Amino acid sequence: MSVAEEDYETLQGQKRPEKVLSVQKDGTSARKLILLRDYWFYSPCSPGYFLHLIGKFDKKGQCIVDSTKNLIILHPDHLVSATVVGDSFSCIRRAVLQDRVKATSSSSEPQVYGHILHEIFQEAMKANKWDDDWLHKTIELVANNYLESFFEINLDPTVAIKQLKIKAASLQSWAKTFVAPRPKSDATIRDRRGDHITFCVNKLLEVEEKIWSPLYGLKGNVDATVQISMDDGEGRDTLTVPFELKTGKHTNMAHNAQTAMYTLLLSDRYGWYRY
C-alpha cells in the first residue's frame, strides 16, 4: 500500500483534503484506489499496512470511504476487544493503558453487586423463571460464591442478600414487560430515529458468547445473545442481537459503543446487518 494526500472538490464547489491509498489485493498485481474523506482522512495509514475494505470499487477501480458510506479496518488480523474500543470514545489513552497495564485494585460494593446480578440475570434467562421464590433461591446460591468478596468490602452477607432481593425486583419488572412470545403494547423503546417501536425477547441463544471477527478486527464476550421480535409499525422482524446488562445508574457513550461493536460481531457470525 502506498499513501498520498490530495484535494477534491465537493458538490458545493469547496476544496477538501483526501487521503489516497493505492492498494493491491493479495495474490493479484492489479492496483486500485481507496479515497479517504471526512474524518477518515485522519486514519493513520502508512506504506506497507494491511487493511480490509468494507465497500465496493467502481468501474474506475476507486472506492470512496467517507462519513456516509463504506469502512476500512487497519490490521484486521489484530483483534481488538470491543470493550477497549468502547472505552476509547471517552479517552484513547485510558483504553490503551487499561489493556496493557493489568492493574489490580480492591473490590467495591457496586462492582460486587454488579457481578452477582449479572450471574442471577443469566441464570434467570436460561431458566426463563422470574418469580420471587426462584429468584430468591438463586440469589442465595450465587451469593454463597461471593463470600470472600463480601468480607473484602466488609459487607455482611445477610445484608447483601437482602439488598440483592430488592434489586432483583427491577429484573422482574423488565422481564414482565419484555420477555414474551410476541411484543406487548407497553414494551416500547425508541430507535435511532427517535421513533417508538415495540419488541420482545422470545429466545435465549447463548450466554457469555465469545466471538472473534477478522472481518472487523474485533473480539468480544457478549453477556447474552438473544432472539427478538420487533414491530416498527411497518412490519415485524425477527433478529439475533446482543444483550448487555449494565447495573450502573446511568449509561454512557462507552456502553453504547460497546453494544454497537457487539452488533457488528454478531452480524459477522450470523450473516446479517441492520443499523
Structure description:
With 275 residues, the protein is α+β, with helices and mostly antiparallel strands. The chain has 7 helices and 11 strands. The chain has helices spanning 82-88, 92-100, 109-127, 132-143, 147-152, 157-178, 253-270, and strands spanning 2-9, 15-24, 31-36, 51-54, 62-65, 71-74, 80-81, 188-190, 196-213, 218-231, 236-243. The strands form 3 sheets. Strands 7, 8, 9, 10 and 11 form a 5-stranded mixed beta sheet that branches. Strand 10 (218-231) and strand 11 form a beta hairpin. Helix 1 runs antiparallel to helix 2 (92-100) and helix 4 (132-143) crosses helix 6. The longest helix is centred in the middle third of the chain and has 22 residues, at 157-178. It starts with a strand and ends in a 5-residue tail after the last helix.
Mean pLDDT: 88
Shape, principal axes of CA atoms: elongated
Summed up, the helix count is 7
| Main sheet record | 5 strands, mixed
Strand residue percentage? 25-35%
- Helix-strand topology string: EEEEEEEHHHHHHEEEEH
The helix-and-strand class reads alpha+beta
